[in-house]
Design goal:
Length: 200
């Protein structure tokens, strides 16, 4: 995206809670969206139409006058979980074909188009309607991150009960957990117990 381009999605960066490691640039919106579900606590920030609409509006992804239907809610939740699966690949996870198909089907409905600027810049902009415009802004941020190498640093914590999206800022891109102090130590304790059990 060109520097002078401020999409509606890019306004309220400071509102997003990322759990410690915010992804740089607009990728933070993708991270924030995936982390609207706290799997461990069973809390979903966008679990119903009202809260989805309010989250999207809060982050400048949707206007108040855009109607949200049950099918939009379903699409958003499918999109989020397909993104989570995709980001798990960045942490050594296997691709899931069904989930990929879902993501590609939803991505097609976002209708991303290349827009060239008078300064010679190029950016992607969604021309899909309603919820797909909002999701398209997230996709555009993802594609931009794929282009400059940030994407593979956005990962899903490898602890099954966590699955939080975190940004791996380590030099060698070897981060596996959302936070070493939380899931890292849990995982190590689990491994330790496994090893001990094997020796008994
Ligand atoms: Zn974690």
């Amino acid at each position: 995206m060109a520097n002078d381009y401020i999409s509606p999605a890019m306004k309220n960066r400071e509102l997003l809670e990322t759990g410690g490691k915010p992804a740089p640039g607009d990728l933070i919106f993708v991270q924030g969206f995936v982390n609207t579900l706290d799997i461990e606590k069973g809390q979903d920030e966008i679990g119903d139409i009202r809260s989805l609409k309010s989250w999207l509006m809060q982050h400048g992804l949707l206007t108040r006058s855009t109607p949200i239907k049950v099918s939009d809610l379903k699409a958003a939740l499918l999109f989020r979980e397909a993104l989570r699966r995709l980001l798990a690949i960045n942490n050594g996870g296997k691709a899931n074909e069904v989930s990929l198909k879902t993501l590609n089907r939803l991505a097609a409905r976002c209708e991303l188009a290349v827009i060239f600027g008078s300064d010679g810049s190029a950016r992607l902009e969604p021309s899909g309607k309603g919820i797909f415009k909002a999701l398209g802004h997230l996709l555009a941020a993802a594609i931009e991150a794929v282009g400059d190498g940030r994407w593979t640093r956005l990962k899903i914590c490898c602890m099954d009960n966590c699955r939080w999206a975190f940004y791996d800022g380590s030099k060698n891109r070897s981060g596996r957990w959302c936070a070493m102090s939380v899931c890292g130590s849990r995982d190590k304790a689990r491994e330790y117990r496994k090893r001990r059990a094997g020796h008994v």
